Amino acid sequence: MRKKIIILGVTGSIGKGTLDVIRENRDIFEISAISAHNSSEALINISNEFDPILVLSGRDSNDTKITYSGIGSIIKMLENTEADIVVNGIAGSDGLMPSVTSLLSGKNLALANKETIVMAGKLIMNLAGNLGKKIIPVDSEHSAIFHLLENRDPDSVEEIILTASGGPFRLLPLDNFNKITLEDSLKHPTWAMGRKITIDSATMANKGLEVIEAHELFLLPGDKIKVLIHPESRVHSLIRTTDASMFAQISDPDMRIPIGNALFYPQLITSSFGKLDLTDQSLTFFKADFQKYPLLKSAYKTIDAGGAYPLAFNAANEIAVEYFINKKINFLEISNIVFNILQDDWSIKPGSFNEVIETDLLVRKKTINYIEKQVRK
Ligand code: MG
């Protein structure tokens, strides 16, 4: 019996990588369903190759080939479709409820949507635990650490170290940050990804979200999660054990490795993707400068503050980045907006996924209000 896979966000970089892994392993996997936000053409092209159920989530469709469309379509499909694993490659906070429904409908989760964990870490980890379902991280750093921690006594792990490329402004002096344009920010040195996450890599809000994600996934306090800038993006993360040894996962930056390992889990993928020749390669590491990347520092603070602070960090940043992508605010204003929103009291602990979504909407409203009234004067 082949493993049945559902791919959410099939037209994004995670979706495309997942299709590649499945193409190489068609005797092991089959695709039950795929979703795209807006591109019905892309869905139909893929359906000619794999024949899955098609979901167009961003708008209603009359096309008879598309089984589910519009608001609530992903949730309905998940409830009515059998599968072993859901690959959640949806961008942003829209990914949360599909993650919840995947688990509730009896599927394991290959999770590339870090917002699921940042917004509702404890709730979703408890839900998976109670249902006996697995959340396997697909984010390259967390995939690396997840596999490095497998079969290891948690007490023997002193710290984990997430690597970061440093984004396009690693070498730009701080004094010039006020001149950064949208176009500059969209040039990621190593990974080709969507616009939101590329901007988040330039501000390192992405690494901040990943620190929060690691805190929830691996149950580690903030001071045991370190960040190192590693411009070559070959070492995807490391762990340090109590005997002072370090273990790393090293490969070419190719998302098909973490995707494949999530699909094959608990086996390792057998593939030639991302095979790295280390001959004559130099791997360098630098300290992450909190002055240049203030959002990384605030992410750590949200872990200590607890409650809905991580959620507020994510939602305020998502709104600010949207304004930046629409060229309505400048680069430095992204972090200032997030700081301002984090000054409010977000100590409440949402007790359900509905409360998470309500709080998330509240943060968004406050952020939009603040930007319209205070920033865009
Ligand atoms: Mg990552």
Overall pLDDT: 96
Low-confidence blocks of residues: none
Give me the Rg, rounded: 20 Å
Q: Which oligomerization state do the chains in this entry correspond to? A: single chain
Instruction: Going across the biggest sheet, name each strand in turn.
Output: 4-3-2-1-5-6-7
Describe this structure in words.
The chain has 14 helices and twelve strands. The chain is of the alpha/beta class and 377 residues long. It is globular and about 55 Å long. It folds into three domains: 3-137, Rossmann fold (3-Layer(aba) Sandwich); 139-254 and 263-298, no CATH class; 306-377, Rna Polymerase Sigma Factor, Chain: A, CATH 1.10.1740. The chain has a seven-stranded parallel sheet, sandwiched between helices. The chain has a five-stranded mixed sheet with strand order 11-10-8-9-12, covered by helices on one side. It has helices at residues 13-24, 40-50, 73-80, 96-104, 114-131, 140-149, 182-185, 195-203, 205-218, 256-264, 294-305, 309-325, 331-342, 353-375; strands spanning 3-8, 29-36, 53-56, 68-69, 85-88, 108-111, 135-137, 157-164, 225-229, 235-241, 246-250, 286-287. Bound molecules: magnesium ion (MG). The site of magnesium ion has 4 residues, from helix 6.
